[in-house]
Write a structure and sequence with these properties.
Layout: H1 8-19, H2 21-27, H3 33-40, H4 44-72, H5 75-93, H6 98-126, H7 129-143, H8 145-157, H9 163-181, H10 198-201, H11 204-209, H12 212-242, H13 247-268, H14 274-297, H15 302-329, H16 335-356, H17 362-387
Helix pairs in contact: 1-6, 1-7, 2-8, 3-4, 4-6, 4-16, 5-6, 5-9, 6-16, 7-13, 7-15, 8-13, 12-15, 12-16, 12-17, 13-15, 14-15, 14-17, 15-16
Length: 391
């Protein structure tokens, strides 16, 4: 696709919003977690479990939807996913108890996954190499808008409505995206689609995971998501309960840190060599993880912890565009499965780390998790880049 095409801007905005959909579904109601626990008269851990089930839904949904899109194209699965998301969100609003709510969050995450995996697949269908890295960097920057807007708006809404109001807003966002997606053209011609049946289409996962280069760079990407989700799941309790911030103030801090991700993505897009940008991002992530962990373990003032979080998210943002494009470039013939495994790995990491950072002292657990994630990320990046240097 030529960048001068009149549909370029529309495609860029639409795909950017779709990739932001997962973070938006996750982040929008973060300030409402305490209110959610009060409404259902449940423990904080049960309310936090809705975050975990949503992430698992986002992971599993991508695993299923990616190969289906390789067989039937991108457009129809995208429209079905968005329509189903609207239904799932409506059901969350009327859930009678926390147990059914958490189950419905799994369904909501599953349906939202379509937008995430298919946005990356559409981009991979249309771009290659550094052009793909640049496009992904651009939509990743748009992706940074969702975490900026979501918790701030969510926190503001809590002054006027209950947690249900935030889910009504999610439903409206889903409806708007469905309208936009109806205008997206099919990016995978029939001639390039998998000739296998639906069930056999899942055999594509065997192919992508037999590619050692794909697996190595995927491991680096997945490890980086440990850092992100440790921060996401722990920050409401660190900033609201630990430092006494209001939901709105927490949302503003969360938004500022999300800006760090967007700026990091934008900076990464300026590197002509994706591999070099990835290595620099990995090193920066380790350095900031050490600083952040030390600040948390010492329970430093918020004036120290908040800038540390910001710079940690900046380093995370530097890793994402290059890491994503290199992984997807490894398996262009199975872009749907490759994109699905990429997305699923991240949200699986989130589902695993979210409850763990709630064990014991959240300051200690969060610091340990971000440090483990950053060191693992840098180690995998170093190994993969040395074995498969840029051509």
């Amino acid at each position: 696709m030529n960048r001068n095409n009149e549909n370029y801007t529309f495609l860029f905005v639409t795909l950017g919003l779709l990739t932001a959909f997962g973070p938006f579904v996750t982040d929008f109601y973060l300030p409402a977690l305490p209110a959610l626990a009060d409404y259902f008269r449940s423990s904080a851990s049960m309310a936090q479990m809705s975050l975990t089930t949503g992430m698992f839904g986002l992971a599993v949904g991508q695993v299923f939807i990616g190969p289906i899109s390789d067989r039937y194209g991108r457009r129809m699965p995208l429209l079905v996913s968005m329509a189903a998301f609207i239904v799932a969100t409506a059901l969350c609003i009327v859930a009678p108890n926390i147990y059914l709510f958490n189950l419905l969050r799994l369904f909501q995450g599953f349906t939202a996954a379509g937008g995430i995996v298919l946005a990356r697949s559409i981009a991979t269908d249309m771009y290659t190499g550094n052009e793909l890295t640049l496009f992904i960097a651009m939509i990743s920057a748009v992706n940074g808008v969702a975490p900026v807007v979501a918790p701030v708006v969510g926190g503001m809404l809590l002054d006027f409505t209950s947690w249900k109001g935030t889910f009504v807003q999610l439903l409206l966002v889903g409806a708007a995206l469905l309208v936009l997606c109806s205008q997206v053209r099919e990016s995978l011609p029939v001639a390039r689609r998998s000739a296998r049946g639906v069930l056999s289409a899942f055999a594509a996962y065997g192919k992508v995971f037999r590619n050692p280069k794909y697996v190595a760079f995927l491991a680096a990407y997945a490890s980086s998501m440990l850092v992100l989700f440790a921060y996401i799941s722990a920050s409401p309790f660190i900033l609201q309960q630990g430092y006494g911030l209001s939901p709105l103030a927490f949302g503003l801090c969360f938004a500022a840190n999300a800006v760090g991700i967007g700026v990091g993505c934008a900076v990464a897009g300026r590197f002509a060599d994706s591999y070099r940008g990835l290595r620099i991002g990995g090193g920066a992530s380790v350095f900031m993880a050490i600083v952040t962990a030390a600040a948390l373990w010492m329970k430093a003032p918020i004036a120290v912890v908040e800038p540390a979080f910001f710079l940690l998210m900046f380093a995370f943002g530097m890793i994402q565009p290059a890491g994503t494009s290199i992984v997807l470039d490894c398996e262009r013939d199975n872009a749907g499965a490759a994109s699905a495994a990429l997305g699923a790995s991240g949200f699986l990491m989130g589902g695993i780390v979210s409850p763990l950072v709630g064990i014991g002292d959240v300051f200690v657990a969060c610091g340990a998790a971000v440090l483990l994630g950053a060191v693992s990320t840098a180690g995998f990046i170093r190994y993969a880049c040395r074995r498969w240097p840029a051509a």
